[in-house]
Design a protein that fits this description.
The relative contact order is 0.16. The strands form 2 sheets. The chain has a 5-stranded mixed β-sheet with strand order 1-2-3-6-7. Strands 4, 5, 8 and 9 form a 4-stranded antiparallel β-sheet that branches. The longest helix is centred in the N-terminal third of the chain and has 13 residues. By secondary structure, it is of the alpha+beta class. The protein is built from 3 helices and 9 strands, in the order H-E-E-E-E-E-E-E-H-E-E-H. It has a domain of 132 residues: 3-Layer(aba) Sandwich (Trna Endonuclease, Chain: A, domain 1), CATH 3.40.1350.
């Protein structure tokens, strides 16, 4: 056993945000597995209510963001930030999956910044929704794609840019964690 317990930054940040969105005074608790062998679960949320307990599990997939080079053609649309995720099979043990991407809103800034200056784009999916997205994650030729990607200028509009063979650039901004926290509320209050 390692003498030091560490937590990946995305998991730490999301655990803190979930504690804010699901306060302890309303019976919610956020848990982190201490075993590295627990591959399907990165966070668990417990709700205590009238002597009963209800728990949901969350898996977090994270990506750095990439800023593209300017396009050669004027008609080419590029977003300020792109994510890059490996295609995966949503685990049966995870009730929800969060796709997390951190970005610097002003990468050219030269003055010192704090950790709060960085932003993230966190999309919440149910396991069923993620399975559907992974099934539809196809190349333009219709074969299973190894990766999928989102592009955005800011989190108010987050488009699927790779992993959709029709390249419709579907907007997933309605999947932002803050907009979908009610799904976790509903699961824990059922």
């Amino acid at each position: 056993m390692d003498p030091v317990f560490t937590l990946q930054w995305p998991e730490f940040l999301l655990a803190h945000r979930l504690q804010t969105l699901l306060p302890k005074k309303k019976g919610y608790s956020v848990f982190v597995p201490v075993s590295r062998q627990e591959k399907a679960v990165d966070l668990a949320i417990l709700r205590k209510r009238r002597g009963a307990h209800k728990t949901i599990t969350i898996q977090i997939k994270s990506s750095r963001t990439y800023s593209p080079v300017p396009p050669k053609r004027k008609g080419t649309k590029r977003y300020r930030f792109y994510t890059f995720f490996n295609r995966f099979e949503p685990p049966a043990d995870a009730d929800f999956i969060i796709l997390f991407a951190m970005y610097a809103p002003d990468a050219g800034r030269t003055k010192k910044v704090s950790a709060r200056w960085y932003c993230d784009c966190s999309l919440l999916f149910t396991r069923r929704e993620m399975k559907r997205l992974m099934r539809s994650c196809l190349t333009v030729g219709g074969k299973p794609d190894k990766w999928f990607s989102f592009g955005f200028d800011n989190p108010n509009a987050v488009y699927l840019t790779r992993g959709d063979n029709a390249r419709k650039q579907t907007d997933y901004a309605d999947h932002l964690l803050e907009k979908r926290i009610r799904l976790i509320h509903k699961s824990l209050n059922a």
